[in-house]
Write a structure and sequence with these properties.
By secondary structure, the chain is an alpha+beta fold. It contains eight helices and eight strands; from the N terminus they run αααααααββββββββα. It is found in: Nucleus.
Amino acid sequence: MANREEKRVAILALSAQGQNPSEISKNLRVSRQTVYRTLERGTATAPKRMRTKPGRPTETVEAVKIAINEKNAKATVRGLAREFNMPRTTMRRLVKDDLGLKSFKRTPRHALKSTDKEKRVAGAKKVVILHLDETPFSLGEMVTMDTGFYIAEACGDADDTTVHYGKERHFANLQVIAVVGSDGQKCDLIFLEDGQRLNSFTYVEFFEKKSLPVGKSNIWRIM
């Protein structure tokens, strides 16, 4: 076509003859977007022709709705797609977007009797859980972390009736040095204090101060 006006006239003329936008686009070699825009504007001689609305046809939506009601809500998307001869994804959008339905999934529950429910409620009221929200503290030779909790029959009970359950408990760190000579002579155990770490320097220091005097009767060779 020579110009836009000739294209517009040709599009409107073919539309008046009953051709759809896809056929007009193929015959005139123009994009379908151009055909849609030209038909939406329209003229006095060619009435305005709106673009087809996206989505599923209303007749199909109503037919699917009736089929679901007849099946007593036991229909599946796969079965409906096979029945209406359409893709499963299209049927899923139709059921979800157009009908506003979603799949029903049965939630399993405990088969409790009325007596079991009453026992659970009574047990829950009897036990009071007090969560510990403090920094870790030392208790004897054990280190109790702040992830434990206490169980008591009621708030304000005495300490001897309260039971503590620690989720994470471990013994305090302890480092000790033991030296045994070649003749079987033993040195007293050397316990490291808190904050001390055993390395090459502290090992030589403890060896010279405490282990070496014990072996004076023997020949010790220090490399």
